[in-house]
Specification:
By secondary structure, the protein is an alpha/beta fold. The chain is built from 19 helices and 22 strands.
Length: 512
Amino acid sequence: MRYILCIDQGTTSTKAFLLDEEGNLSQGTHVPFKQYYPQPGWVSHDAEEIYVSVLKAIAMLLKEHPEAKGSIFSMGITNQRETTVAFSPSGKPFTQAIVWQCRRTSDICRRPEIRDQGRRITEITGLKIDPYFSATKMLWLLENIKGLRERCLSGEACLSTIDGFLVYRLTNGRSYASDYSNCSRTMLFDISKKAYDEEFLELFGIPVNTLAKPLESCADYGMIELDEEYLSSNGFTDDEIKDLMSVNGVHITGVLGDQPAALLGQNAINKGDSKTTYGTGSFTLMNLGTEPVFSKNGLLTSCAWSINGVTNYALEGSIFQAGSVISWLKDELGFIENPKDCDEFCNSIEDTGGVYLVPAFTGLGAPYWKPDARGVLTGLTRGTGRAQIIRAGVESIAYQVTELVNLMTDDTGIKAGQMKVDGGVCASSFLMQLQSDLLGVTITRALSDEMTAMGAGLAAGIQAGIFESVEKTGEFYKAGASYEPDMSAFEVSEKMEGYRSAVRATLLSGND
C-alpha cells in the first residue's frame, strides 16, 4: 500500500494524516500551538513553533502507523492562507507571524494611495482592501522590523504565506514555492495571468525576489530534507528522529490553501458546487469552473486549484468568527464546559427571545469589510439568560453563512439544491438543521470533518500518479448526516431581518 502524508496546518493546531491509494484517510494526530495577542485586535503566531508542530504531528502519526514507514510516496500540504511570516535564508523567522485574523494593518488599508487602487485591486486580484490579506501584513513587517527592507532588497529575506515557509523549511531551503490558491490571497496576484502584478508590488513596496515562486497546486515542490541535528536540539526522541528521517527523499507534490483544499476534498469539482467549512472561521466557496466571476456583492474570487494547466476558480465568502464564537462562550464567558453542550442549551428554549449576536470580534468580513466594527449583542431583556446568549451565539454562525450563500446566488444565478459541509462545528446538529432551514437546501455533512487534509492528499496523489484524475477522486467522497429544511419562508425572513438589524447596530459601533 502506498501512502500520502497529508499536513493540515491550521490556525490553532497542526494535524497530520495518511491517505492511502484507495482513498481512505487515517485518524489524524493533533498538535496545538500558542496564540499570541500582543495588543487588542492583534493576533500572532510563532512560525518556528508552527514548523516544530508539523514535525511533531508527523512523528506522532508514524508512531501510530508503523506500517506506513517506508511506504510514504508523497506529501500534500494545506494551510491557513493569509498568515504572513518574514524569515532569513536560514529559515529562521525575524519576528512572529501576522495571523490572517489580525487587524493591526487597518491604518495601512486606509492610506489614500492604497484606497485609490481599490477598484483595480478587486478587478485583478479578486479581493477587497482589508487587513485580512497578506500584502498589508508584508508592508507592516517592512516598516516595523528594523533592517528587514534592506535585507529584502539584497535577497537576504523572504516574505511568505505559511505554505511557502513550510516548503522552504521541509526542503532545507532548496525549494521556495507557493501554489496559486495561496498566492491569490496576498492581494499581489493577478488571478487571470497567475502571476504577481508589478504595479501592486510597487504599491506595497515588496521586492518580487522575496516572494515564493507561484506553482500549480499539483506540482513538484521539492524533496523533504530534514536536519537530524535540528530535530535533536528541539527535543525529539531518538525513535522520533528515526521515524522523521525516514521521510527524507519524499517529494511534496500537492499544496493548497485550506478552503480550496476542502472544496476539492468535498468533491465539489463541478461548476456551481459549493461547500462550507465551519472551523475557527467559516468559509463558503462555490466552484466557478474555469472562468472567474467577480462579485458585485463584496465576495471574493480566488484560484481554487490548478492541475495540468487548467485552473478552477472559486467565489468565496469569509466569516472571521464561527468556531471561535463557541470558544468565546466556553473560555471567556464560562457559559459551557464543552462545545457539545451548546445543543443542549439551544434545544432547552424555543427561541432566543429576540437576542442576536453579531460576533465582529475582529471586524466584519464579507460582504461588509469593516475591520473596525466590533461585536454587538442586541435584544437583551431582564429575562435574558445563559441559554438565550448561547443560542444567539450558535445562530449567529448560520445567519452569516446564509447571507453569503444568498449573495453568491445573486452573483452567479446559481442556486444549488444542496450544500456540503465539514469542520468541527458541524458536530452541532442544532446548527446544521438551522442552516438547512435558513437556506432552504439539503445540508450534507461529510463522514469525515477533515476535508482540508483530504483535498491536499488528493492533489498530491494526482501529481504523484497515485490517482488518475480529479474526476476519479470523486469516488472517495463519503457522506455522513444530512439535514432537510423545515421552516416557513415567513419565519426565515423574520429571523434574517432580525439579524440584519443587529448588523446595522454593529456597523454603527465601528470607527471606519
